[in-house]
Amino acid sequence: MRLKQIQIPFFLFLFFIPLQLFASDTVNGHEQLNLTGSAIGYIALFVFILAYALVMAEEFTHLRKSKPVILAAGIIWSMIGWVYMNNGLTELAESAVRHNLLEYAELMMFLLVAMTYINSMQERRVFAALRSWLIRKGFSYRQLFWLTGILSFFISPIADNLTTALLMCAVVLAVGGSNTRFVSIACINIVVCANAGGAFSPFGDITTLMVWQKGIINFSGFFVLFLPSVVNCIIPAVVMHFAIPNEKPRTSNEIVGMKRGAKRIIVLFLLTIVTAVSFHNFIGLPPVIGMLTGLSYLQFLGYYLKKTKHKCISHEQLFQRRSRDRDVKEGEVGEVVAFDVFTSVARAEWDTLLFFYGVVLCVGGLGFLGYLSVASEVMYTQWGATSANIAVGVLSAIVDNIPVMFAVLTMQPEMSTGQWLLVTMTAGVGGSLLSIGSAAGVALMGQARGHYTFFSHLKWTPVIAIGYAASIATHMIINSKLF
Fold it and tell me: Of 194, 171, 192, whose CA–CA distance to 183 is shortest?
């Protein structure tokens, strides 16, 4: 009853808004309404802020982050549609929302293929085998600190920073779970290195992927950020090194082998990346078409593994029996399991994919209302591109870098290639300033609960900030010809 009492006045209020008084701008020959100073605009802004507050509170409310932003997107665009319908501009609003939906579809399908390959490698125990190898080697705490950081930096450009961070954190917990100091600092290093590694690759982070798919920077253009990314993580790592205990933890002799087809999946994933790049660079098609083509490689491999499973059982069982003499658990090495690609598709991060939908539609709606034009005027005209792009990185430590980067792409400010690379890098590595600034940091707070916390990360924020500033300076010096 109370909900109805709220809804009725709200819709009456919308009905009596004097729509004809809205200011307008001419865009592409059409009259686009400027609603930034209207009640509709203020309500849309409030709805988005409220939705994002719920996203940031996900750790405490346990409300999936996709739910509030999807609802907010529906509310924002329903208000836009209603206003434009009453002004006889329905087609303009429809065209705008279809444009945003197409951008989301390209991003979503690209990520779905990448997630499917990553899940397939997890199911075939590729990452588990790497983890067991690291644990068996008997590295010291300091050696493990550097090794997990370096691996995070070089794996995240191919996989994603979230998967990379979770894998390396599992190694850290398995070896030094009782040493809170080591686990805490090692997790901070993993987050910083994973985020930095993703900044110089189109596949390493959502922000770089969006910039590449938009056609602003070509595939090889991101690699000039390699050295600035190294500087970003090496400076805090050198300082944190001296806080790591100079001891050697106990090792484990457990051996985890990869399942049949694991190495072929790795090769096919690399081939899929080559296909996506080739589609974009040589025939001018969106990279997502190449990624979806690459998904068929995995499907055909799954078909082959299923059809040839019976031929491998006797050989694999013999290998298992021999392995047991080396303290290997039954079924861990050489296990013959039919591979189903759709199981990996189902295990994709659907909450994350739907969160992207909500973000893209919400930010697109605010841009259509006129707010991004105002923000672009303030940031890129009054502040200047360099100051604005550095601020984007700092903001991404508080707010997720995805809506921040999508907002910049929607603004489309006039910038040099060097400035576009700067904002791509800052949006990616700026999230390392706080533990809540990136998906990797949030995930590790859950995985290493009690060891890696918001405040344990905050203690090292000044050192991470020095690395952040140094990476910006490095980029502006060595890539000065791009500005």
Answer: 171
Q: pTM for the full model? A: 0.71
* Residue 31 in tokens: 């009259």
| Torsion 357-362-365-370 (CA) sign | negative
- DSSP state string for 147-215: HHHHHHHHHTTTS-HHHHHHHHHHHHHHHHTT-HHHHHHHHHHHHHHHHHHHTTSTTT-HHHHHHHHTT
Q: What CA–CA distance (Å, rounded) separates 28 from 439?
A: 38
Alpha-carbon distance 56 to 33, whole Å?
A: 31
Task: Tell me how long the chain is.
Answer: 483
* Assigned token pair, 421: 């690379």
- Determine contact, residues 410/363, Cβ cutoff 8 Å: yes
Q: pLDDT tens-digit profile of 430-463?
A: 888 887 777 778 778 777 777 888 888 889 999 9
Token couple for 92:
């303009």
Residues facing 32 on adjacent strands = 25
Max CA separation in the chain (angstroms): 82
**Token pair recorded at residue 191:** 């987050």
Q: What are phi and psi of 27, to 5 degrees?
A: -130, 120
* 167-223: pLDDT as tens digits: 788 878 877 767 888 889 999 999 999 999 888 888 777 788 888 888 888 888 889
